[in-house]
Amino acid sequence: MNNWRMFKLRSVILSAALFFAVSSFAQNKDLVKIEKILQQQANDWNRGDIDAFMKAYWKSDKLQFGGASGLTFGWQATLDNYKKGYPDKAAMGKLTFTLKSKEKLSRKTAMIVGKWELERANDHPNGHFMLIWKKKKGKWMIVADHTSSVCGE
User: Partners of 118 in the beta sheet?
Assistant: First the structure.
């Protein structure tokens, strides 16, 4: 192989490697941003501030939340359900998230799967969640949430 062909081949390989490295960095950067939002949510919850906790959710009638009582549509309905189910700081307890998997599905969509736990005076409810995140106007937000409780706990 002559020098010119070898140079072109090396250039193509180097360009491809650089593209994948930059792409991977961007994906990791977005997943780190989402993790920080989840940590802020836990902090807001642990302060007893459901309104601040809800800032991570898409403020739209198209927001979807699936849980033990079925499917809820809309940001306001989701907020109302949270406030009904957790009327005070004692009911809210201390929230901890443990992330099990994080995946960018596209440039503007991610999926996070994890476990949630509440530490309260008389019980320790816990379960799992799957969150679909979309990047809208440069900001990551939850557009769909399916949260379940572990039976018998």
Answer: 95
| Count of residues in the chain | 153
pTM, rounded to two decimals: 0.81
**Cα 60–chain centre separation:** 17
Q: What is the pLDDT of residues 33-66, one digit of tens each?
A: 999 999 999 999 999 999 999 999 999 999 999 9
Domains of the chain by start residue, with CATH:
30-149 (3.10.450.50)
Give me the residues paired with residue 135 across strands: 140
CA distance 25 to 39: 21
Residue 135 tokens read as 């990047």
CB 58 within 8 A of CB 139: no
β-sheet bridge partners, residue 102: 112
